[in-house]
Amino acid sequence: MKISDVLAEKGAHVITVWPDKRLDQLPQLFDERNISSVAVVDHAGRPLGIVTDRELVRGLARHGVAALEFPASRVMLSPPPWCSPDHTVGDVLRQMTENRVRHILVMRGDAMAGIVSIGDLVKIRLDDAELENRVLREMALARLAG
């Protein structure tokens, strides 16, 4: 299964912020949108980095509450982790594991095509496993009946 299949199921919308967005504004955005990451983009919409709940917590751990006044650009992962729509789910899960990230931008050339999280990919893998299990069970029952 490819990342393009994941985006077809979950959608391709990416929540973005400017580099100067203050960190104290991100928790409310995360809560309102039920997300845990935002892409940081320049004024042309090109991704500069990504801020996740993990970067937010890391900023607080290292700088205390003063970090809440920082711009997103100060704590973002830059360059952002990315993949293409043609990458497989397995490839991207491996990339997430090796780089210890849970969110990856999906890029089609210079344009963002979406974002995937480890939760999105695990859900797809579970759905695939359940489908495969059903097919194998039906094949086994057909052989027993036949």
Question: Could you explain how this protein is built, in words?
Answer:
48% of the residues lie in helices and 19% in strands. It is of the alpha/beta class. The chain is elongated. The two termini are 32 Å apart. The model has no long low-confidence stretch (mean pLDDT 93).
Q: What order do the helices and strands come in, and which of them pair?
A:
Elements: H1 3-10, E1 16-17, H2 26-33, E2 37-41, E3 47-52, H3 53-63, H4 72-75, E4 82-83, H5 89-99, E5 103-108, E6 111-117, H6 118-145
Largest sheet: 3 strands, mixed
Based on CA atoms alone, the radius of gyration comes out at 19 Å
Derived structural class: alpha/beta
Backbone shape: elongated
- The neighbouring-strand order within the major sheet is 1-2-3
Question: How many extended strands?
Answer: 6
Key phrases:
6 helices, three-stranded mixed β-sheet, 146 residues, single chain, 6 strands, alpha/beta, 48% helix
Concise synopsis of the structure shown:
It is built from six helices and six strands; from the N terminus they run αβαββααβαββα. By secondary structure, it is of the alpha/beta class.
